[in-house]
Amino acid sequence: MCCGDGECRPLGFLLGLPFAFLSLLISIVGVVIWIVGLSLTCICPCCLCVTIIVELALELIKAPVHVMKWFTSQIPC
């Protein structure tokens, strides 16, 4: 994974893979929550709490990308 300034950090990418796998599992849970939340929103669109749950699920889906970016930025070249 390369940074925007041209620095490549392959070691950080390799060390971050287990954490990315764990966050991938969390994102799968997020997908399930997102599907259930969307179906509940279709049934009762007035529920604000369901919308908040759907937003949380979207953040869980984006978790692998956030984890890999954070982890590779922590390891120096």
Characterise this structure.
The protein is mainly α and 77 residues long. It has helices at residues 10-43, 48-61, 63-74. The N and C termini lie close together (12 Å).
The radius of gyration computed from the alpha-carbon positions, rounded to a whole number of angstroms, is 16 Å
* Shape estimate: elongated
Largest sheet at a glance? none
How far apart the termini lie comes to: 12 Å
- Catalogue the unreliable spans: none
Order of helices and strands: HHH
Fraction of residues in helices? Answer: over 70%
Helical stretch count? 3
Approximate strand percentage: under 5%
Mean pLDDT score: 74
- How many strand units? 0
Which structural class do the helices and strands define? mainly alpha
Topology:
Blueprint lengths: L9 H34 L4 H14 L1 H12 L3
Helix pairs in contact: 1-2, 1-3
